[in-house]
Amino acid sequence: MTIAAGYNFGYLDEATKRMIRRAILKAVAIPGHQVPFGSREMPLPYGWGTGGIQVTASVIGPDDVLKVIDQGADDTTNAVSIRRFFAKVAGVATTGRTAEATLIQTRHRIPETPLREGQILVYQVPMPEPLFRLEPRVAETQRMHALADYGLMHVKLYEDIARYGHVAISYNYPVMVNRRYLMAPSPIPAFDNPKMDRMPALQLFGAGREKRIYAVPPHTEVRSLDFEDHPFVPIRADAACSLCGSRDTYLDEIVTDDRGGRRFICSDTDWCASRREEGR
Amino acid sequence: MAYVAVKGGEDAIAHAHAWLAEARRGDPAVPELSVAQIGQQLGLAVDRVMAEGSCHDRGLAALAIKQARGDLIEAAFLLRAYRTTLPRFGASAPLDTAAMLVRRRISATYKDLPGGQVLGPTFDYTHRLLDFALEAEGAPPPEPAPEAEADGAPMPRVSGILAQEGLMAAEPASEAPPGDLTREPLAFPADRPLRLQALARGDEGFLLALGYSTQRGYGNAHPFVGEIRVGEVAVGLTPPELGFEISIGDITVTECGMVNQFAGSKTEPPQFTRGYGLVFGHGERKAMAMALVDRSLRAAELGEEAAAPAQSPEFVLYHCDNVDATGFVEHLKLPHYVDFQSELEKIRTLRATADAAQREAAE
User: Which value does ipTM take for this structure?
Assistant: First the structure.
């Protein structure tokens, strides 16, 4: 594919890419710490993945193979739109296959296929601050991160357990990275949290509107917050995929009629299709 | 299968965009609107898009309005996304608005003042009656308005007149280059140049409501319009290869200087303080709202109580940008079914736990 005329490789100019790469290097050096960066207006709206797009644009090379997923699927409209954007401005090869991709940009899911060393997973992040629902003032949350003062979040989890018997967070479930920084894993389901722990691939997080980048380097410890007597439990629908029969993947619930009819299918379309191919 | 429709695809996007293009053009029997017509006859919309898009280019702003079907926030976004790709040659010298070629200049604090009051082209004092004569097309253009000879008298700014008497708090002079929030992320505490930058490109509606709130008791403002002036100012730039300042053109701006009461403190005598607004084009509402909010954001530095929303820099500056705001609000349209699924499972679990507890209590 040819690169769109009039634009630099990867859309961003080289000075901007360098600024973003510096932020990424700092983020990798301090796992889980949010690094401010001079986020640019992109030709896609804030809130639609501009942070992830800027990170991807800064690390992508001509030999990369790009996969873009939204809600676990390659064919959701926003994933299609972002993949087309990079095909146009970087001319790179794209794929739906997790194993074939060198660079995966994602919104709301981690692929079911375990990632390997050398791959990069780029998350689109709406709100990088894990504490924002408890403390909206950024100046205040920065102080709390500096002092590793995360009592507020522990109290929130404790109050959930006292009121409901469970932690009432089902996605964007807060994690401790490298035993130092509290981090928002972006709105992935809590089911995906364990995949972040000691992942061999590099995980980069880009929040465009909030102008923050953070990272989890390969093989870094990522722990979901919990208590000894109330350990973290990843949740999924207690059902099997009606297409591939999987019982250990994350499922989407499909409403099939207006009489309570439901069926479940894998949210990761690549995983589901591969399993069906192997089964045949 | 039922779920395929939900997941859309390349075809759906292409077809939707084709439909959008058709809807934008409207009925082909109606003549197409030209960018020049938008620039000339929807001039205040163009001004607003230049201000919120923070890019002074009437032609591009008019094009953006045409492309956005008149959605001004969408148009501002188009302009911003273009602006961010432009190379930066340098920073201009500070505008000298005292030397403005004034089209309109009014003061609410002095009946008469050096340079006089100039009403200019304004909706003020028009009766808001729909003018059905405008419906008829092909009417001859209006007669040119009577013109007085410019007397060339200087028009000093009202804040300067008050400062001469020592009644207006002096602004600390600084040679430090101001920050640039289009290159560096906003950080707090944000100094006044940075705050003014954010307000200048902030959403007119948001700033209007905030400014209004300070008048209604949420912030305790006592403002007077010292002056509003609209007109053309020269933009000066010193190219490094020349070493002296040259004028690179004139732009239209609206400036508002609000005069506000200040009770004084231990170190400062009672005096007036400034709220300042400056926007591209002719935008009095925005310039006035900006001046009100600028002053209320100074509450903390002036040692005033700061409890109202308009006095909180984080609240105002993080939320005044409509390109940010519309992106994040509208992204709720994107699929969220993975998160919603985990919420479904969670709420089913919580309800089961609550049911079990109730049954236990009943037994």
Answer: 0.85
